[in-house]
User: Fold these one by one.
Assistant:
Number 1:
Amino acid sequence: MPAECPDLWSGSFTFKEVRVEMIWDEEFETLPREALEALQLKRLKSLVERVYTDVPFYRKQMDGAGIKPGDIKGLDGLGNLPFTTKDDLRDNYPFGLFAVPLERVLRIHASSGTTGKPTVVGYTRRDIDTWAELMARTLACGGTTQGDIVHNSYGYGLFTGGLGAHYGAEKLGTTIIPISGGNTKRQIMIMQDFGSTVLLCTPSYALNLAEVMSEMGMDPSSLKLRVGLFGAEPWSERMRDEIEKKLRIKAVDIYGLSEIIGPGVASECLEAKRGLHIFEDHFIVEVINPETGEVLPPGERGELVFTTITKEAFPVIRYRTKDISRLIKEPCVCGRTFLRMERVTGRSDDMLIIRGVNVFPSQIEHVLMSVEGVEPHYRIIVDREGALDTMEVQVEVSEEIFSDEVKELERLGKRIQGEIKDMLGVSCKVKLVEPRTIQRSEGKA
Ligand SMILES: [Zn+2]
């Protein structure tokens, strides 16, 4: 952990050397598996007792499944408990799933409901502390240390991104710039004038920043930025390469969702940049088959399910995230012992069924990644002509390619079409469009 400032009243004026420590909470982040599982079980048992007593929804769920809190004898007992879904959260809007009286809730956040009511989550004082610790871990995992100037472009407000990262950065002892989202040119000016070294935002907003810099005729290497922690939306290795190349920084993937705690659920380490360490002393992870609910063995791809074992105000049992990933069991070079999850490659409800075939947008992205001259911006349009589903993929191509002959464009379109057909087994239309014609996000707010 970073050294404290010297205490000027103690008579000692020697400045301590500030140590650079990549692992924020070494004791917990490097726990041997056996000790970790013992801790998880102890915490799980206490959680199940607590929600059975304090949350009518969970008592009803468990009674319905014929399970009493005392039935949980081992970690494998978790699999007998019913899932919790986003619909359950909506049905108990706004505070029905809180496990403490509202007087003990210090803060409320909510996720932007695309349809109807948002989902509401709450935090006690201890929850806020836990969250700050987890975000300090996340930032350290991505290579942030005391002395860094953290440019936080995640939205501040009901969305968990801004404030979640903010408290973690303060806990870690960095200098934080709470700039929030939007007004890209001003962001760039502040980044330059204040000497920001760490960027926090969505990956698509990072690309947007790079594009605006290039429009302004600005060289990103004139900035002090060296690393970016990107999350709140799925992205690909191809996008990582783009961001690293265009902004001249190292880019790491972070993961979280408000229903679990916000950002601070899992993070890639800068050493490996391969898979995100899940903070398993606070969250138990399972991967399930989204169709059947069956728990899959490690290594298989499916839907992530989390149980929060330390949260007080808003604990969840077996929450179905709808995010598609897979677990990596192999030990990591950084020394952390937590399991890693592969970057999220899609959403189980984004899964498109085209003429009976399951299609994840991430598979299409994977195809596009392999084609030279194609920009990492695309849009999938699914329609129905008569009884037949149709799919059109609109892809941005580079300036050079777009100004090529029509024949060349046609050839490229045909090639992408062929590769998508090979990969998915369904045919689609491919439309190549000019650079910067597909709408960019202004950061998630
Ligand atoms: Zn690692």
Number 2:
Amino acid sequence: MPQYTPPLRDMQFVLHEMLNVEQAFKEMPPHADLDADTVNSVIEEAGKFAANVIFPLNQSGDEEGCTYVGDGVVKAPKGFKEAYAQYCEAGWPSLSCDPDFGGQGLPELVNNVLYEMLNSANQAWTMYPGLSHGAYAALIARGSDELKQAYLPKIVSGEWTGTMCLTEPHAGTDLGIIRTKAEPNADGTYAISGTKIFISAGEHDLSANIIHLVLARLPDAPAGTKGISLFIVPKFIPNADGTPGERNTVKCASIEHKMGIHGNATSVINLDGAKGWLVGEPHKGMSGMFIMMNGARLGVGMQSLGLGEVAYQNSLAYARERLQSRALTGPKLKDKPADPIIVHPDVRRMLLTQKAYNEAGRFLTYWVGLMIDQSHKHTDEKVREEADELVALLTPIVKAFITDNAFESTNLGMQVFGGHGFIKETGVEQYVRDARINLIYEGTNTIQSLDLISRKVLLDGGKKLMKFGKLVQDFIKAQAANPEMKEFIEPLMDIGDKVTKLTGELGQKAMKNPDELGAAAVPYLRVVGHLVYSYLWARMAAVALAKPEDDFYKAKLATARFYFAKLLPETAYQIRSARAGSDTLMALDAALF
Ligand SMILES: Cc1cc2nc3c(=O)[nH]c(=O)nc-3n(C[C@H](O)[C@H](O)[C@H](O)COP(=O)(O)OP(=O)(O)OC[C@H]3O[C@@H](n4cnc5c(N)ncnc54)[C@H](O)[C@@H]3O)c2cc1C
């Protein structure tokens, strides 16, 4: 049976020793009184909920999957509905929501920590509240007061859940070609018609109402993404007293049978003149949806972090107890027929790869979470702006680098189990299957890579990247007098220089041939991702070096050394690949493949 223990010690390390959140919260008036103890106790409770209520439903939910009962009715796996009721009763949906709408007003960062644990426990279940939180974020930013009053209290309490309806059968990555139509009604509402596919949590029995956020085109819409508007389309139209009223003509036609996340209903949603309300301005729906998508991209990073962690925990436990062969240097457990597989160098490589990726991923996602809070609530406008820019730069890294790494980690987790990992009972093959979708949805990792190099780096002449570079340089300067840090600072400087050079080269090449960016984007993201992780690992090493006696810091330091020695060298290959250009990719005529 798989196991999961919330990694509270490492979470606290990141929150308090790396991010010093208590101090950071003091500079944000809504959180000025939030102390470290309160944060720790919230996280501890969240961990108990994730481990005791949600985790036990993970394997059974995967085996049973969702059921399309007929006539638009979908049932989530056994126990999901009851667990969701407990989740709402305990107030978890409202954790970081605005108190004006019934929220508890805690920082988004704390919500991120909750989501890491929920995702370790059960990604498929977590997507139901996860999408609702995305709908909350889009509505609070773009909804009219009337829409906010009608929907937010119910979404905040968890009574109603949300979805994001972008994808259509012919339009996935390219949302500019969606066909769903919105015709104005005489009463100021819209009649929305079209088919949306792959809608996560699109239909289920967890909540009394489902609130779809739908992209559609108005009759006078310009072509492309500049002609897309955002609508709120409830399954049941709310009555004046806030109860779910008349059934809207939005209906689930079927659900998909898929590789992983079986417990989440991936739905085909038909809109047949469904009543909808415009959110924000006409034709400017993408900006509202981007709020949801950016939150969701960070959310997908949290999904993968969660899966990477639970896969690691299980493979570590197995590696300690599975006896197989003797250590190359001679027997370690002489009274046993063989040594535990954790003695073998390559098993250690697999475990340390998972550990190094998880711990850097945790630092990165929590840091970005904190900067999201700062970008909204910090007293200093300059800090708000800077945080916003760094979040924009780092979002594609969170989405693509973490999900790529976690897919590798879950795979390695399975490999540590040998043949037993391939057998369903041990539970680890599910992590590989569940982790796979994270590379695809919310913009495939290719699209994230293009976003990084084109929009986030080159579009502003490298300004955001230089902001990040300044943080790295400041850290390097601060560590200059510390000889013990040399082993980390030298490779950090080296990868920083290489990224600067590579970025300049690719910018030049792209001016002559745009295919050069398409050819280099994916390896480029891996290189920048490693620059970010080198910075984060060097910072963690600096803290760990100061406390050499404590086992936690000994492990941290050993993992930092492993990262620099064994994982960072991937950049040599990726830089060569990025430099190799587009010629060999584009030379072959499509008909000759
Ligand atoms: C389980 C699941 C849940 C989902 N949940 C939701 C949801 O809740 N709401 C929602 O709206 N959608 C959802 N999706 C849809 C998901 O976001 C899309 O599948 C994804 O954006 C990719 O679109 P596509 O499948 O049409 O692939 P395509 O866009 O057809 O892409 C196919 C391939 O071509 C590549 N490609 C496309 N364009 C380019 C380009 N310009 N440059 C380089 N490569 C390119 C892609 O990277 C990909 O590898 C979900 C999908 C799945 C499978």
